[in-house]
Amino acid sequence: MTHSPVWHPFTQHGLGDPVPLVTHAEGAVLHTEDRRRVVDAISSWWVTTHGHCHPRIMAAIADQAQRLDQMIFAGWTHQPAEDLARELCRILPEELTRVFFSDSGSTAVEVALKMALGFWTHRGEGRSRIVVMEHSYHGDTIGAMSVGARGVFNAAYAPMLFDVGRVPFPGNDPQPTLDALEAECAGGAAAFIVEPLVLGAGGMLMYPPEVLAEMRAICARHGTLFIADEVMTAWGRTGTLTACEQADVVPDIMCLSKGLTGGAMPLAVTMASEPIWDAHYSTDRTRTFYHSSSYTANPVACAAANANLAIWREEPVLERIAALAAKQQAHLDTLADHAMVRNARRCGTIAALELGDPGGSYLSDLGPKLLRRFREADLLLRPLGNTVYVMPPYCIEDDDLARIWAEIGTAADAIAAD
Ligand SMILES: *Cc1c(COP(=O)(O)O)cnc(C)c1O
């Protein structure tokens, strides 16, 4: 294959790195055209939960595809969406009573922000300031970028991004975070959006449930809406169905996507509490929630999500997750004392560490070097800078998991020898 017109996401084509062609997948393994067996150590960018081509999800997709492929969702409905919305309301906190569908994590965030602003506008209060956490990531559309960390990924688009309040990431001492949030909320912030427990794209940064609970309480005291972006953290990634659950936190708005369909189809929901709905509910058409995309609540995607929820209901998913978490910890422990490893940490099934000498000047190109090394070792691992993390599908086989960690160890040794 000499020339492809495909422009890939987050890919600098000028560097000339090979773009492997994957023909099929099962479980935690991708198979390439040149017959390589690649272990998917990052769940294909955090979406695949029970494994690729899961038979129950594939069967649900095939079945739905025979009956209803796609239809308008404005003023019309279908059974897969009705079933999914009811089941989400049943398994998530009872305060989250309303389900708005979209098709990606970014759009789920855009919807959450629009709901929050709509809430304040329709109540006749002029709150509009959004508060975010340093190092956050909420997606790549304009609104989602605006509430995310600023940096090389969005510097070119800065003129289009709106201004937000920022609170520091809670490090060893969470007080500055809580104080900054308190000040923003007391100043009348409309909403605070945050990734609960783990900041994914920001570098798998982890903070404890107690801090999440305190942040939620501060928002509640001042009426600032609390938006939990669970796009990466939900569906068992952090050890529980949602990360909020570990802090007994019920947000006003929750964004879900990635593992919602088990990672098989693009689908997202923004769950809202009754006051958000009430602010829009009226005979006045100007209060309508004016948001839609063509494929809102695509029936086939909803069927995939219903199959995912059936797996959660009927199979010991949390036990599988706990077992994987324990294995991840054991592997992490073997590397924690390595001279080139720092900040070994874990939350649920997500394990992360920083590689390299903290004083090293080569850190800037360590990320691409690691990416190449892992690709050549038939591993799908995509370090965030010098942060290496392992977030596999829950069905990964022990040998494959061991191979991932052995290769990370080899990489650490190679850096030490450099
Ligand atoms: C991936 C991610 C998003 C964006 O989801 P897309 O489906 O890629 O648009 C938003 N928030 C968080 C926390 C994410 O990890």
Could you describe the 3D structure shown?
Helix content is 36%, strand content 17%. By secondary structure, it is an alpha/beta fold. The protein has 2 domains: 55-314, Type I PLP-dependent aspartate aminotransferase-like (Major domain) (Aspartate Aminotransferase, domain 2); 316-417, Aspartate Aminotransferase, domain 1 (Alpha-Beta Complex). The strands form 4 sheets. It has a 7-stranded mixed β-sheet, with helices on both faces. Strands 1-2-3-15 form a 4-stranded mixed β-sheet. A 3-stranded antiparallel β-sheet has the order 13-14-16, covered by helices on one side. The radius of gyration is 22 Å and the shape is globular. The model has no long low-confidence stretch (mean pLDDT 96). Bound molecules: pyridoxal-5'-phosphate. Pyridoxal-5'-phosphate binds next to helix 4.
Give me a quick take on this structure.
With 418 residues, the chain is an alpha/beta fold. It contains twelve helices and 16 strands.
